[in-house]
Amino acid sequence: MRSTVLALGAAALLGAGTVLADDIPTCSLDKKCPESAPCCSQYGQCGVGAYCLGGCDPRMSFSLESCVPAPVCQDKTYKMDKASMSKIVDIGKYLGDPSKADWVSQGEPVNYNDNTLLTMPKNSVGTVLASTSYMCDVKDEIDYEFVGTELKTAQTNYYFQGIPSYVNSGNITITDSWANWHEYEIRWTPDQIQWLVDGQVGRTKKKSETWNATANQWDFPQTPSRVQLSIWPGGLASNAKGTIDWAGGPISWDHEDIKNYGYYFTTFGEITVKCWNADSGPGTNKGKSYYYNSYRATNDTVVDSNKRTTLESFLGTGTDMDKGKVTGTKSSATKSGGAAETTLPNSIPGAGSAPANVPGGGSGTSCEEGGNGQSPSNANNGVRTTGSVQMGASALAAVVGFVGLMFL
Ligand SMILES: *[C@@H]1O[C@H](CO)[C@@H](O)[C@H](O)[C@H]1NC(C)=O
Ligand SMILES: *[C@@H]1O[C@H](CO)[C@@H](O)[C@H](O)[C@H]1NC(C)=O
Ligand SMILES: *[C@@H]1O[C@H](CO)[C@@H](O)[C@H](O)[C@H]1NC(C)=O
Question: Is Signal one of the keywords (predicted)?
Fold first, then answer.
């Protein structure tokens, strides 16, 4: 039995699992959300409440103001120990105040030996943790990805506004992704992205190499982001064939880890985020929040602001943040009030449990940068861990480092 574990990093992408409900309106660049469900979630579906918080894409929402302004970056080291589990809050309980939670979760994070495990029980879609400060929206993303059948490779990738591109990836050879702890770091500045493993630069991508003459812009991640960590079943039959192949083949739910522990998992020991603070806006991180003032969603369209970032209930949106506010006595509040109404079908994105669209995998659904992740054990076909870190606004960048292990 393999007792060990390994580590990984962090960042995130979207990914992990989500289930898409059939009866909820979908959204894309060509199809914005309706006024009644104005916010486009990172999974491409329209709703209110948590749909308007982290991951809400202003370009695909009813209006640029539909998404709630996102909290700015904070320098911080997140211990992933037992005490910090109280700072991980389920997405169905978080209304946008980063002082109340460090991470928003979907799935089943677990504490083990004073580290945090992201788990993926049989037939689940895995677990995702997204940082609460510095939300990302327009699908710029920087990743580390670890495949269960490639134990000596840390794959790196980046996306600009979620545009699928199959030439942006690069591999870093590592000694193992599961037997020893490793530190995965993304150093993202306005001019370049560097991926470091255990302190050694494994890959560098310069912004100067990303000019797109057709679009007349730099296809380089350049907007505020958050850190996302996830483990997800890339090898599910419902995923695209390219994703299944990339994940190492169809997933096996009979692996010894499932038998021995009840889930596949990846382990995180500590995550550090260091913000890039621009001298002038956008990206100073001096205010409270930021929002976009143009559908172009490039670095110069990010606005530093002091607008509030919190909703009063899961009925709210960026243009009606007080909706569902509880007034009057506590008892009447319980009857009519805000948070009690989280049962609307489309107020919590990704709730459910079916497999989702391809996370991280290049589907262009995510929005993060940095990070690292890792994957699993040998013979774990079809399992992937993804990490990304994001930071910075506008040309902001951030340095993120993660230490993690994975057991498989
Ligand atoms: C990275 O490694 C994977 C797995 O071995 C391989 O499929 C992929 O083509 C490699 N990517 C690059 C850019 O070399
Ligand atoms: C350049 O931008 C256009 C328009 O967004 C996009 O379709 C194309 O794929 C980009 N080119 C490359 C090489 O990524
Ligand atoms: C946005 O990026 C452009 C191109 O790299 C750069 O010249 C400009 O200074 C950046 N603007 C801001 C506000 O960061």
Answer: yes
